[in-house]
């Protein structure tokens, strides 16, 4: 009963993966894409020009993998944050995690640090931000207003983080560091290479596996700490594990792609409309839909115009009206 | 009734922060007992419940379940013995009722597991026990308050804990749903071998359904005994400042039943209303 649904999902992601190799200014035939990819695993007689292989393997493959990885990370962590904060209106960017992570990453770039240090700084910034937002939201316990206060807390933390980012840009060297930070902040996958992937993929995959294993228990957290404990779930430990995993995933995504807005809000909601709120099915659906969604938006970003639109701008333009529609519905259960 | 206590509180003291709200609370519950806890608002019923459920740290004494001290038990182990039924509430997500009931299996599953077919069958049986099988596929956010309360009781049944702690399960319910829920709880204690401790604000509910009644008075004094010996006109007058009469009537279906009749609220001479 569940199997056909997964078959559709996996099939959709696989098809989008292959089709994405054909998007871009340099035309590559479908057969060439398959042959070049296959040649990495099994011996294939070479019939394609050298630049086709370079474009498929060195330019498009890392970018496609990065889009899928970042989309999956932001969507899965967004769904997990929503469960752990018992609030369907939160996401990595609304909670301030993305802004905190970008502050950490910008600081690392300012000091001329490399891939792993940027990751670690982004993680520290993201964790600091989500903790601050949570403390603001729980300062005064007023359950009726919790949605509003959590969102407002995220805005405060996000604004402060952005102020620090601006400060870093102000003091950054305008000849090299400043353009690097600015371009990266716009949210783009254009400059992602295989090296970035090898740094970002492990923390994202570790978080993904952990959340996938724990996913059924996210349902129970939605009923609050006391009930979760009475049902036999150590709520404090569970929240810590989920927040650390989600923040690690978000920070790693931010570190390679900059801030890509609203994916972590839009995708979990679309997934919830399709498969319902049970995390057992919802979380893997978010992972796959997130990968699919960002891959398609990135195809749009690099395929529609000759000059490329940064990805973060597109997702924000798609996500903002969606967020508005959700706010209109929040009184009626916020489904 | 079996002789071993399913849960036993020995000289329990409970409170928040630096404040001790209740002290020297001792009682035990055996299989089939239905203990109603009565007391004014803000006197410490919720604190006692949270301490009993180990959601608040014990400030003194000990809690024993199945003959063992629970101090060193994990959250999971404790939940296998003692279940909690909160007041019917809204969930942030519209889970199917069957999924909500199946969440009662958490204490019986490993951290990385989800309910198996057998676990879902336990959940289905729990719903059948409470005659809510027809709600299984409905959304928890769309059913009525009385139905939600029954769903939460079913979740505690699926937990297969033998002690159920219920926090005002009849509040916010209409008369029919109140009696319906209480009937179900009594049937559970009589037939399923569970013990229930329940808070209520209605002394009549305690008189009608309780096999024993515990009361907390204004001074934080804890008393426990048979319903008719604890719920007296004097208790109601002293605790709630309500002049009352407890009457005994012949029931149309045989036997006798008691109920309390309020005569009027006394003005609080100490001007310390509603603590």
At a glance:
Chain A has helices spanning 3-20, 30-39, 50-84, 97-110, 115-139, 146-171, 177-185, 194-221, 225-230, 235-257, 263-275, 279-303, 311-329. Chain A is mostly helical and 335 residues long. Mean pLDDT of chain A is 87; it is low at 331-335.
Detailed description of the structure:
The complex is a heterodimer of chains A (335) and B (275). Chain A is an all-alpha fold and 335 residues long. Chain A has 2 domains: 47 residues, no CATH class; 267 residues, ABC transporter involved in vitamin B12 uptake, BtuC. Helices cover 75% and strands 0% of the residues of chain A. Chain A has 13 helices and no strands. In chain A, helix 3 crosses helix 12. The longest helix of chain A is centred in the N-terminal third of the chain and has 35 residues. The radius of gyration of chain A is 20 Å and the shape is globular. With 275 residues, chain B is α/β, with parallel strands linked by helices. Chain B folds into 2 domains: 227 residues, 3-Layer(aba) Sandwich (Rossmann fold); 44 residues, no CATH class. In chain B, the strands form 3 sheets. Chain B has a 6-stranded mixed beta sheet with strand order 6-7-8-3-9-10. In chain B, strands 2-1-4-5 form a 4-stranded antiparallel beta sheet, with helices on one face. Chain B has a two-stranded antiparallel ribbon with strand order 11-12. In chain B, a hairpin with a 5-residue loop joins strand 9 and strand 10. The longest helix of chain B is centred in the middle third of the chain and has 17 residues. The model of chain B has no long low-confidence stretch (mean pLDDT 90). The chains are: A mainly alpha (335), B alpha/beta (275). Chains A and B meet through helix 8 and helix 9 of A and helix 2 and strand 6 of B.
Number of separate domains of chain B: 2
Strand content of chain A: under 5%
Oligomer: heterodimer
Which homologous superfamily in CATH is the superfamily of the largest domain in chain A? ABC transporter involved in vitamin B12 uptake, BtuC
- CATH topological fold name of the largest domain in chain B: Rossmann fold
Radius of gyration of chain A: 20 Å
**If helices are DSSP runs of H or I spanning 4 or more residues, what is the number of helices of chain B?**
9
- Please tally the β strands of chain B and state the result: 12
Largest interface: A-B, 29 and 37 residues
State the low-pLDDT regions of chain A, or none: 331-335
Q: Compute the number of structural domains of chain A.
A: 2
Order of helices and strands of chain A: HHHHHHHHHHHHH
- Element-level helix/strand string of chain B: EEEHEEHEHHHEHEHEEHHEE
Which architecture of the largest domain in chain A would the CATH scheme give at its second level? Orthogonal Bundle
Estimate what percentage of residues of chain B fall within beta strands: 25-35%
What is the strand arrangement across the widest sheet of chain B? 6-7-8-3-9-10
Gyration radius of chain B (Cα, Å) is 19 Å
Number of helices of chain A: 13
Return the average pLDDT of chain A rounded to an integer.
87
- CATH class group of the largest domain in chain A: Mainly Alpha
Helical coverage of chain B, percent range: 25-40%
């Amino acid at each position: 009963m569940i199997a056909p649904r997964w078959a559709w999902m996996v099939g959709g992601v696989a098809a989008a993966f292959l089709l994405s190799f054909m998007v871009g200014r340099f035309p590559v035939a479908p057969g060439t894409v398959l042959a070049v990819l296959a040649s990495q695993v099994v011996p294939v007689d070479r019939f394609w020009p050298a630049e086709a292989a370079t474009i498929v393997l060195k330019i498009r493959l890392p970018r496609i993998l990065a889009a899928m990885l970042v989309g999956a990370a932001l969507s899965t962590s967004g769904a997990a944050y929503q469960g752990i904060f018992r609030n369907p209106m939160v996401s990595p960017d609304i909670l301030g995690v993305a802004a905190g992570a970008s502050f950490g990453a910008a600081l690392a770039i300012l000091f001329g640090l490399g891939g792993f240090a940027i990751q670690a700084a982004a993680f520290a910034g993201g964790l600091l931000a989500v903790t601050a937002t949570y403390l603001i939201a729980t300062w005064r316990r007023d359950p009726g207003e919790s949605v509003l206060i959590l969102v407002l807390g995220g805005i405060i933390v996000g604004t402060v983080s952005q102020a620090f980012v601006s400060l870093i840009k102000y003091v950054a060297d305008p000849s090299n560091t400043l353009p690097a930070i600015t371009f990266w902040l716009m949210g783009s996958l254009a400059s992602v290479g295989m090296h970035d992937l090898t740094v970002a993929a492990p923390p994202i995959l570790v978080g993904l596996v952990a959340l996938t294993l724990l996913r059924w228990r996210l349902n129970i957290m939605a009923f609050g700490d006391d009930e979760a404990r009475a049902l036999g779930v150590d709520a404090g430990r569970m929240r810590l594990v989920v927040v650390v995993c989600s923040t690690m995933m978000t920070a790693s995504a931010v570190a390679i792609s900059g801030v890509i807005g609203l994916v972590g809000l839009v995708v979990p909601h679309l997934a919830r409309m399709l498969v319902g709120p049970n995390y057992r099915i919802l979380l893997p659906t978010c992972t796959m839909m997130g990968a699919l969604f960002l891959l398609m938006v990135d195809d749009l970003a690099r395929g529609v115009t000759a000059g490329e639109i940064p990805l973060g701008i597109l997702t924000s333009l798609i996500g903002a009206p969606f967020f508005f529609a959700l706010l209109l519905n929040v009184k009626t259960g916020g489904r | 009734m079996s002789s071993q206590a399913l849960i036993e509180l020995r000289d329990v003291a409970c409170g928040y922060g630096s404040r001790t709200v209740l002290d020297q609370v001792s009682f035990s519950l055996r299989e089939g007992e239905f203990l109603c806890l009565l007391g004014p608002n803000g006197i410490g019923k919720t604190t006692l419940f949270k301490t009993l459920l180990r959601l608040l740290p014990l400030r003194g004494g000990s809690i024993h379940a199945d003959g063992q001290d629970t101090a060193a038990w994990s959250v999971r182990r404790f939940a296998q013995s003692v279940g909690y039924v909160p007041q019917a509430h809204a969930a942030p997500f519209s889970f199917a009722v069957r999924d909500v009931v199946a969440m009662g299996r958490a204490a019986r599953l490993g951290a990385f597991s989800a309910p198996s077919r057998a676990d879902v069958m336990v959940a289905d049986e729990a719903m059948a026990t409470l005659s809510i099988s027809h709600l299984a596929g409905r959304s928890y956010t769309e059913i009525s308050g009385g139905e939600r309360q029954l769903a939460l009781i079913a979740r505690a049944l699926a937990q297969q804990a033998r002690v159920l702690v219920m926090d005002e399960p009849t509040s916010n319910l209409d008369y029919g749903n109140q009696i319906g829920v209480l009937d179900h709880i009594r049937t559970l204690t009589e037939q399923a071998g569970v013990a229930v401790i329940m808070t209520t604000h209605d002394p009549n509910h305690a008189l009608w359904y309780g096999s024993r009644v515990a009361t907390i008075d204004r001074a934080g004094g804890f008393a426990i005994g048979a319903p008719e010996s604890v719920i007296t006109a004097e208790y109601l007058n002293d605790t709630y400042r309500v002049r009352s009469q407890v009457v005994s009537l012949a029931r149309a279906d045989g036997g006798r039943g008691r109920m309390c009749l309020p005569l009027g609220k006394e003005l609080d001479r100490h001007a310390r209303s509603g603590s």
